[in-house]
Design brief:
Structural class: mainly alpha
Strand content: under 5%
CATH class of one domain: Mainly Alpha
Oligomer: single chain
Radius of gyration: 25 Å
Largest sheet: 2 strands, antiparallel
Helix content: over 70%
CATH architecture of one domain: Up-down Bundle
CATH superfamily of one domain: CDP-alcohol phosphotransferase transmembrane (TM) domain
Shape: globular
Number of helices: 11
Strand order of the largest sheet: 1-2
CATH topology of one domain: Four Helix Bundle (Hemerythrin (Met), subunit A)
């Protein structure tokens, strides 16, 4: 009798699993999502070549950074196409997160690691002293936080577009943008400015923490570009476009990604300080009120 129940339970489990099989997918958004992962993998391949010269004016590290930027463009495009065609699905969301992990998790950490190793001429793993171990720690922390960030987003994500006005924690594409914008800027503008290279592990560790934080970050596309918005939003968009025109593209990338990652952090710290100040003032007022009402104090 127990064996019969076991077989019945197994049969029900198999039918339940078969019922969850993916039968239909949307081709174009899925292809663009896979293209996101392909760009991320290409970035890793370029970064693995290190300081080898490319025929032309680009270094392999700069090319790796541009591949990550192309992955960001594909990541924005696939979701927009899926929502426009009303073909969003759980399969598309999971596929997007897996490709994001390659392009915005593994690729930026690997680019940072390889650039520092090539610049500092570090070859052995975990055997070049405290600095090399810290670089590895920053890379591993970044990959781990990016993985946690994407998994948390999948669990908490809502299909309602109105709910996508902000993110809890720094989005992984923006975190990757902070790292690769500095890499591109160093390679193409200040190749001999080694201080920027030494700052990369600290920046990587910082954006990793921001990814798993609960600081609210705005959804730029939905908040500023979609639907009718106040006139002030147009001024902000024109300001950022002016940055790109006024500065060269490499400098503009650093400013834009840095402002996005740091802006919400500064706002959060300011709100924390204001709330703490208000609570301290309220506590002082309540203490004065209690003292004024105490007969012993009046006496």
């Amino acid at each position: 009798m127990s064996r019969l129940k076991t077989k019945t339970n197994k049969g029900q489990l198999l039918r339940r699993v078969r019922g969850q099989r993916v039968k239909h997918i949307t081709i174009l958004p899925s292809l663009i999502t896979i293209l996101n992962g392909v760009f991320g993998f290409t970035a890793i391949v370029f970064a693995s070549k290190g300081t080898e010269a490319i025929p032309g004016q680009f270094s392999y590290f700069a090319m790796a950074g541009y591949m990550v930027l192309l992955a960001m463009f594909a990541d924005m495009l696939d979701g927009r196409l899926a929502r426009m065609s009303q073909s969003t699905s759980s399969f598309g969301g999971q596929l997007d997160s897996l490709c994001d992990l390659i392009s915005f998790g593994v690729a930026p950490a690997f680019i940072m690691l390889r650039l520092l190793e090539s610049k500092l001429e570090l070859t052995a793993v975990f055997s070049q002293g405290l600095l090399h171990r810290f670089i590895w720690l920053a890379a591993l922390a970044y990959i781990s936080c990016a993985t946690i960030r994407l998994a948390r987003f999948n669990v908490e994500n809502e299909e309602n577009e109105a709910a996508h006005m902000s993110f809890a924690g720094l989005p992984s594409p923006a975190a990757a943008g902070v790292i690769i914008s500095l890499v591109i800027f160093h390679q193409e503008q200040l190749p001999n400015f080694d201080l920027l290279i030494y700052l990369l592990p600290f920046v990587t560790l910082g954006v990793a923490i921001l990814m798993v934080s609960r600081i609210r970050y705005p959804h730029i596309l939905n908040l500023y570009l979609k639907g009718k918005k106040p006139f002030s939003y147009l001024i902000r968009v024109l300001f950022f476009l002016g940055l790109v025109v006024f500065f060269n593209m490499q400098t503009a990338l650093v400013v834009i990604f840095g402002a996005f990652a740091g802006g919400s952090l500064v706002k959060w710290l300011y709100q924390k300080a204001v709330r703490k100040g208000v609570s301290l003032v309220s506590a002082d007022r309540s203490r004065l009120t209690e003292d004024a009402g105490d007969p012993q104090v009046n006496h």
